[in-house]
């Protein structure tokens, strides 16, 4: 976070209007890279990851890598390179960790996701043997090396762009709603004392900040589209007012419509009102009215992690700057699987 702020400060020295887009992307990428790959590189210095990350900006050929697979091969080739690099990175990190364990190095290093995942690693032969002997068809809780790699790549794909974009939308809404920005800032001032380390517990107590992020994600659910959180019916069933869904049919909620549905959110559904997430105003609301992270057993596993990351970024920015809308800036969002701003220029005023 300090590096993220240093880069913003460098831009601010040149101009009070700062584009946050790449700063947020670098931050999201660096955090996941550290947690899922154990790679600690300075922000923005991992050039090849940055290049492949652009694949998700879908600037070329057509809408998405999946569409491209059918329409043209260009993006798809880039995407497979991305997976290849992801596999290479994970492999090299896993090898380093193996060495670490054997040689007893880095024992005092801070543990990360990779350490926890490695604790569940087993030899695939062991799983096969167990399954053969007990005829156990339950899913094993252990991971083979291949599964471990796949999890790391999944974290990188699902956990970097998403948080970066959520952070950008929050910064935009803070600038757009100065009165809400003031409420969040007052809460920060009340809870954080200058140089102090920002802890998980401190962030937990900051309710206004939490409601602010939730309201932003209601207005800007990053995953809005059918392929984002679709589900396949495992058997013939009937949902809602007698709608029949046959086995194997995919059903996807229209998240944007749900997030602005007046029957769920009240007459002020179109307004930006973070306090609607307060316990008093949330009472009796349908549990699936708010879906930026999906729902049910396959809800986003990184939800809490992402919320902490966004909170931390907002705290750091707000402690240093007041955010204002930059003249003539217009927010444009694009993307198919993940909706994102194409740039985010904000005017900064340094706080005393
Ligand atoms: C603001 C940030 C984020 C948003 C809006 C978001 C959104 C989502 C959504 C909508 C889903 C699909 C859930 C469903 O089908 O019900 C999902 C799944 C997933 N997310 Fe996130 N996510 C975010 C951050 C993260 C982070 C930081 C990580 C990793 C640390 C992560 C890892 C995953 C994984 C692994 C899945 C697949 C879960 C499964 O299929 O069981 N996400 N996310």
From TrEMBL:
Binding sites annotated in the UniProt record for heme: 300
Molecular function terms from GO: heme binding; iron ion binding; monooxygenase activity; oxidoreductase activity, acting on paired donors, with incorporation or reduction of molecular oxygen
Keywords per UniProt: Heme, Iron, Metal-binding, Monooxygenase, Oxidoreductase
Named cofactor requirement(s): heme
Alphabetized PANTHER family for the sequence: CYTOCHROME P450, CYTOCHROME P450 FAMILY-RELATED
Family classification: Belongs to the cytochrome P450 family.
Protein name stated in the entry: Cytochrome P450
Source organism (scientific name): Acrobeloides nanus
